[in-house]
Design a protein that fits this description.
Blueprint lengths: L6 H5 L1 H32 L2 H28 L2 H24 L5 H29 L5 H51 L14 H5 L5 H4 L4 H13 L2 H33 L2 H24 L5 H12 L2 H5 L5 H29 L2 H33 L1 H18 L4 H4 L33
Helix pairs in contact: 2-3, 2-5, 2-6, 3-5, 3-9, 3-15, 4-5, 4-6, 5-15, 6-11, 6-14, 9-15, 10-12, 10-15, 10-16, 11-14, 12-14, 12-16, 15-16
Length: 449
């Protein structure tokens, strides 16, 4: 039975404990994703109110994600994650109590969702940076693939579990389970023990190979100065800013086809929610396959493979609007799911391997800001575009924009040549980012392309 357990879980015990806690939390989040809209609808039966509560949860990410990135590079990351889990546990428990006692109001749910969003904004950059301190560099891809596997599997299991809980205990009961999942995650983080101090190096390449970015070497800088250092690491690496641009296009242009136009088309032409559920589950199964591939594959040029995977992922819109039978659409959406998982595992691993540990959370905060922060813009525009241009023309246009952007990444030498580990990199040429004295990183950005 032991051989069935991935080696990274057997050899990296602290990561294994964190993995279990975060897996429970992710499952709870998937349940909440389904339960919260039904919670709002149980009060007001208004789609506008559902949008209000969802927006209230997303807006804090725009304001606080960069702050969370700076803090996560200053303070012990597991403590930030622990505090975030405790806050989110309290929020979900409060919402559950309000719903179960019949005292919930839309305005109060929106306020609590905003508090949840603030905690989320601090958790995301810290979690990316913490993994680097728990797992050796040569195991990061496996660890990220396992985390992705849980995310993908929860896409299949979470909605099914949520539907059962809502039927048995209502939305309040389902959200109570999410609160318990955050409590479990917090308990794991509390027992994790001291993790390598930020700025002192860690398990990954960024901490192992070199100096201190920002605060550790020449004394802590001010908030804006530390944020600027993080931006320099984004701007000075062509593969980073171009990858973030492709991610932004995916979130703003492609994902609205899934969240807004897809359900609309399913209702009008496919026979309703059950047909859409088949497509969503197929995508989740494909995503699981992608995570397994990411776990087993060891590409020498990971970002080149990631660019192709993103191009495949960006075909979701044209697949949904193809007019094919539902089973064909589901099959093709499964293929795009493979691309989505493969891209994000390789992307996150590349950041963790090539970005110095001391600034990783700041760079990650820009990543989360661009991806999650810009998504509401696409969701807002998708409906009017579909009504104005027609559903299928809008979907075809989404693909016509997104796929070329992904393939354009392959035109950049920085993407094509980025190795799996910094040891394979050539010495950086002139044009790499200039950092403050005392803020040299162990892995310098590549020359400007």
């Amino acid at each position: 039975m032991r051989v069935l357990v991935p080696e990274v879980l057997r050899t990296e015990r602290r990561f294994a404990r964190l993995f279990v806690g975060q897996s429970l939390s992710v499952l709870g989040d998937r349940v909440s994703f389904v339960a919260l809209p039904f919670a709002v609808l149980s009060i007001s039966d208004s789609a506008a109110d559902v949008g209000l509560v969802a927006t209230a949860g997303l807006l804090p990410l725009l304001v606080f994600t960069l702050v969370g990135g700076v803090w996560a590079d200053r303070l012990p990351r597991q403590r930030i994650m622990l505090a975030s889990d405790l806050v989110r546990c309290a929020v979900q428990a409060a919402i559950a109590v309000l719903l179960l006692t019949g005292t919930a109001r839309v305005g109060l749910l929106a306020l609590l969702a905003a508090v949840f969003g603030v905690a989320d904004a601090f958790f995301l950059p810290a979690s990316t940076g913490l993994l680097l301190l728990l797992v050796p560099a040569d195991r990061l891809r496996e660890a990220n693939a396992l985390r992705g596997f849980v995310q993908s599997a929860s896409l299949v299991v979470g909605p099914a579990l949520a539907s059962v809980l809502i039927a048995l205990a209502g939305p309040g009961g389902a959200l109570a389970l999410d609160a318990v999942s955050f409590a479990a995650s917090a308990a794991v983080l509390a027992r994790l023990g001291a993790v390598g101090a930020v700025g002192a190096g860690g398990g990954g390449v960024g901490g192992a190979v070199g100096g201190v970015a920002g605060a550790a070497a020449g004394g802590r800088q001010g908030f804006l100065a530390e944020l600027r250092v993080g931006w320099q690491h984004v701007r000075g690496r062509t593969w980073v800013w171009s990858g973030m641009l492709a991610i932004a296009v995916y979130h703003v242009v492609v994902l609205p086809s899934v969240f807004v136009i897809g359900p609309l088309l399913a209702k009008r032409e496919w026979g309703g929610a059950s047909a859409w559920a088949v497509v969503v589950v197929a995508f989740g199964v494909g995503a699981i396959v992608g995570d397994v591939c990411a776990y087993r594959l060891k590409p020498a040029r990971p970002m080149a493979v990631a660019a192709v995977a993103m191009a495949v992922a960006s075909c979701q819109a044209v697949v949904i609007g193809s007019g094919a039978p539902v089973w064909v659409i589901a099959l093709l959406e499964g293929v795009t799911g493979v691309g989505v998982s493969l891209f994000f595992v390789l992307w996150e691993t590349s950041l963790q391997v090539h970005i110095p540990e001391q600034v990783l959370s700041r760079v990650s905060s820009y990543d989360h800001l661009i991806s999650v922060g810009l998504m509401p813009l696409g969701l807002l525009l998708a409906g009017p575009l579909a009504e104005g241009l027609g559903v299928r023309l809008a979907l075809f246009g989404m693909t016509a924009i997104a796929v070329p952007v992904s393939l354009a990444l392959l035109l950049l030498p920085a993407i094509r040549r980025l190795p799996a580990s910094p040891s394979a990199e050539a010495e950086p040429a002139a044009g790499s980012v200039a950092e403050p004295v005392g803020a040299r990183s162990g892995t310098a950005p590549e020359a400007a392309v």
